[in-house]
Design brief:
The two termini are 20 Å apart. The protein contains three helices and 24 strands.
């Protein structure tokens, strides 16, 4: 029987940093973000970015200890007259390269001749400081695959001087045949089930476009006998919504293995959870872990944490890894708040998130 990860609110966690001074983390943090991303900047501070409510753009927080966070205000403003963006600013990630800071994000594109309900694309903005102001690098999305996309994540392979972009195709108008969809229709739940899939593609070094065609890397299981089908289909099998997500991917390398973490199920529901897949190449093929999910709700075991998902991995100076993600508690209600949990790769190569 698969062990359910235990997540407890207000539990002190001790991490050591490069000074060997313990860092005390009490979850959840006092930051109301979805899709959190933490940058360890050259100035020695940590900067957190995330999806905020009712905000045309993004704000940031700063910290020197990962526990106490200072509100730095809005660092990027979108939906301006000269911007390609309209609304729905989601999933920011910031990367420091050659003294500049690059913000990757999702937003609805104003070029929408067919009046699509979801018209998300991925863009990039640049700043001289992690607190901005970030200015759009191009007055357009990075590229247009012909369908809505969200959740940009980058991997810089400095050995071969290549940059890889990962993103999720939205579920919107993407009905997919599967045994789960057939079952849902037979049960009278949904006539069809839409899916989101994770793709990867090489990115031009100046972020101006892509090299080659995107490759499909991860998708929900086709058969219900698949070991991943139960946990990745909970939003459908519970009757919550007619969508199966594979989104919020984050890739990192350990030894000779590439680990891609991803989220499944409805981001606004209790069943949001995280799994991972591995590969020997940044563009796959990826194989999902039999230990999935590695992060999920704990209410069945007396806890009060639900909706765990859209994570990233922060590497500390001493080599330790931390899993940064959002979740909900009985105290926070529908508001998403940030958690930071210790994470490790075992000697057998298994990824484990601890709390």
């Amino acid at each position: 029987m698969k062990k359910i990860l235990s997540l407890f609110v207000a539990l002190p966690l001790l991490f050591s940093c490069n000074t060997q001074k313990p860092i005390n983390i009490v979850n959840p943090l006092n930051v109301e973000f979805g899709d959190p991303f933490v940058l360890a900047a050259a100035d020695g501070k940590y900067y957190m970015y995330g999806t905020g409510d009712n905000l045309n753009g993004f704000k940031a927080y700063s910290s020197s200890n990962l526990q106490d966070w200072k509100d730095e205000g809005q660092v990027y403003v979108g939906a301006a007259a000269d911007s390609w963006t309209v609304d729905c600013f989601w999933a920011p990630e910031v990367y420091e390269r050659n003294g500049k800071y690059y913000l990757l994000f999702s937003a609805n594109w104003k070029e929408n001749p067919t009046n699509e309900g979801e018209n998300f694309r991925i863009g990039v903005a640049v700043a001289n400081k992690p607190t901005g102001p970030f200015v759009e690098l191009y007055n357009r999305p990075i590229f247009d695959p012909g369908y809505p996309i969200i959740d940009a994540n980058l991997y810089f392979d400095d050995e071969v001087q290549k940059v890889y972009l990962y993103y999720s195709r939205c579920c919107y108008k993407h009905a997919v045949a599967s045994e789960a969809a057939t079952w849902a229709k037979q049960q009278g739940l949904f006539n069809e089930v839409e899916e989101s899939w994770v793709y990867g593609v090489e990115l031009k070094p100046d972020f101006s476009g892509i090299v080659g065609e995107p490759l499909l890397l991860l998708r929900p299981p086709v058969t219900m006998s698949d070991a991943q089908a139960e946990w990745e289909s909970r939003s459908v099998t519970s009757g919550e919504v007619n969508r199966r997500w594979t989104e919020g991917s984050f890739i990192f390398k350990d030894a000779h293995t590439y680990y891609m973490m991803y989220s499944a199920n409805f981001f606004g529901g209790a069943n949001y959870a995280v799994g991972y897949a591995t590969s020997h190449h940044p563009l796959g093929p990826f194989e999902k872990s039999q230990s999935n999910p590695v992060l999920q709700k704990n209410t069945a075991h007396g806890g009060n944490v639900t909706g765990t998902g859209h994570n990233m991995v922060l590497r500390l100076p001493d080599g330790q890894r931390l899993c940064v993600y959002h979740a909900r508690t009985t105290a926070t209600g529908n508001n998403r708040v940030v958690f930071i949990s210790k994470m490790e790769i075992t000697h057998e190569g298994q990824l484990v998130v601890k709390q």
